[in-house]
Design brief:
With 356 residues, this protein is mainly alpha-helical. The chain has one domain. Helix 7 packs parallel to helix 11. It is elongated. One of its GO terms (molecular function) is olfactory receptor activity. Keywords: Cell membrane, Membrane, Olfaction, Receptor, Sensory transduction, Transducer, Transmembrane, Transmembrane helix.
Length: 356
């Protein structure tokens, strides 16, 4: 999708998308990616050689956390809708600043050395054991990577919020246009059926909305095809990471390993929780803004036969609501959020029972 200079979420786009298009950032990201892959491979091999459960529980959160249409302008459909969209855009831009600042603070806190950090970060212990002479330099480079990763790791989810916001705005404007179908100026309903100007205007408006609806649906399908595999991988790795963090927190080593790290955990959990909540609320908001309910309220009985046929065609196309769907059985909505929270509660209950 192409966005011009009037993008109301320009700050969101700058930090989550445009920043990573510069060549120096691309080189830095590739270098970081290769370093993380090599270190993760080394850690995997060493885990297989030294398969101690106690040590694996302490290091597993860091280990699994290493994997990681042309729109309508918003001023086109009136000042009320424009103010509503701009107000929501300001909120999301402020939200982005908060998430970025807290994530950056988290990266800096993880980069600052704390006693017994090698108990959590296996890479530091690896440098200490196998490269004692250049240990300080290697550890410094490794820790500086946390600052970069603190900005890069939320980026895919921030992009999802950015695209979701624009999708919501475009659907909102389409629904606003559909509501104008029933607007009639100084004409009795009994005379509308024979009013050629009204019927022609209704036909053009319905065709226009059908075309726009098809554009949005096509853009949604193409976008989902692009991110389908990545979305599945993100879900798997995020689930594993979350499970590892729960096991780590409930393990007997948590009190020892968390000394001096109380600021790291909140700054790590806060951005993840805020992003999680907003993605699901945004996805459900898109689903609730479908065109089907608006079409059902249309005064179709005042239309001629041709317009009724167009109306039935449009009604059939709009029967399935807009969804952030990555496959036939997987979509982002309240049901998925509730199922995740239920699973989390079940895991916490079982671990709490075992700990007692």
């Amino acid at each position: 999708m192409f966005y011009d200079s009037d993008d109301c979420l320009w700050l969101f786009r700058l930090i989550s998308i445009d920043m990573y298009l510069f060549k120096p950032m691309k080189v830095l990201l590739k270098l970081t990616f290769y370093i993380v892959v090599v270190l993760t491979g080394i850690q995997t091999v060493m885990f297989l050689k030294k398969s101690e459960t106690y040590y694996f529980v302490k290091c597993q959160p860091i280990y699994f956390g290493s994997f990681f249409i042309e729109p309508w302008p918003i001023n086109r459909l009136g000042h009320v809708l424009e103010r509503r969209i701009k107000r929501q855009s300001i909120y999301f831009n402020i939200l982005l600043i908060v998430i970025t600042v807290v994530s950056l603070v988290s990266g800096i806190l993880h980069a600052l050395p704390i006693e017994d950090d090698e108990e959590i970060f296996y890479t530091l212990a690896f440098f200490q054991e196998y490269f004692p002479r250049c240990q300080r330099f290697l550890c410094f480079v490794y820790r500086m990577g946390f600052v970069l990763l603190s900005i890069v790791m939320p980026a895919p989810f921030l992009i999802s919020i950015y695209v979701g916001c624009h999708a919501q705005y475009q659907i909102c404007m389409l629904v606003h246009v559909l509501k104008t179908v029933n607007k009639v100026n100084q004409t009795e309903e009994s005379d509308l059926l024979l009013d050629k100007n009204y019927q022609e205007k209704t036909k053009n408006l319905l065709k226009f909305c059908i075309k726009r609806h098809c554009q949005l649906t096509h853009a949604d399908r193409e976008a989902m095809k692009e991110v389908q595999i990545l979305a599945i991988l993100f879900c798997i790795t995020t689930s594993i990471l979350f499970i590892c963090m729960i096991i780590f927190i409930f393990s007997c080593s948590f009190r020892e390993a968390s000394k001096g790290r109380y600021l790291r955990l909140p700054t790590l959990i806060f951005p993840a929780g805020v992003i999680f909540v907003h993605i699901f609320f945004l996805a459900q908001g898109i689903e609730n803004m479908g065109s089907f309910k608006v079409l059902l309220q249309s005064s179709w009985y005042n239309w001629n036969k041709e317009n009724k046929m167009i109306y039935l065609m449009f009604l059939t196309n709009c029967k399935n609501p807009y969804k952030l769907r990555f496959s036939n059985s997987f979509s982002v909505d309240y049901e998925l959020a509730v199922s995740i929270l239920k699973s989390v509660y079940s895991v916490l209950s079982v671990l709490g029972y075992w700990k007692r």
